[in-house]
Amino acid sequence: MKYDIAAKVIISNAIEAILTKFLGIDFSLVEEIKEIPEETVSLKRSDFPFQITRKNGQKEIVLLEIQTTFSRKFVLRLLDYTVRSMLDYNLKVIPSVLLLTPSKDATGFYKDDIITFNYHAIKLWEQKPENFLDDIWLYPFLPLMENGIDFLDEIERKVYQDTKLDIYEKADILTATAIFTGMKDKNLAIKLIKRRQT
Description:
By secondary structure, the chain is α/β, with parallel strands linked by helices. It has helices at residues 2-22, 72-89, 152-161, 167-181, 186-197, and strands at residues 29-32, 48-53, 59-67, 92-99, 109-111, 116-118, 120-123. The chain contains five helices and seven strands; from the N terminus they run αβββαββββααα. The strands form two sheets. Strands 1-2-3-4-7 form a five-stranded mixed β-sheet, with helices on both faces. The radius of gyration is 18 Å and the shape is globular.
């Protein structure tokens, strides 16, 4: 649960970088879709539904889910969100999942006797951290990437030196970085948190 909360805080600030760098989507406008009035408390919805406008003016829906551990049941939920979004908005829907831990089952493809379903699986463990150093809001995900732990000192230094971020934004980035580091090395995550408290 804490991983999902941290991811949501970061994604709300990093969505444009996620769309371009992880999904390769070229857009001119992105807007988060708020709950539609007909939704009830019991009705599940996607973690992050967005409407994008491409540079040619075409509108599409991007569904971005966050998963700590991947499962077949999750894919069926993503399929459910995808179909409902297609019916609600009558637009092309791009289903995607940001995977925080490795899974061989996260193929981007699901098939059974009835259904064939494609989705984007963003596998953080296959990404190279050096490709994302130019977007500070993606820094918390770097420890989950290939050899990402090696970048922790650089992450801290760049966050502290950044003059565009306020103190709360820096705290959000560093806290989320420590939380995700804990998925790889709990002792190192504790050291990061203690280092900030001194």
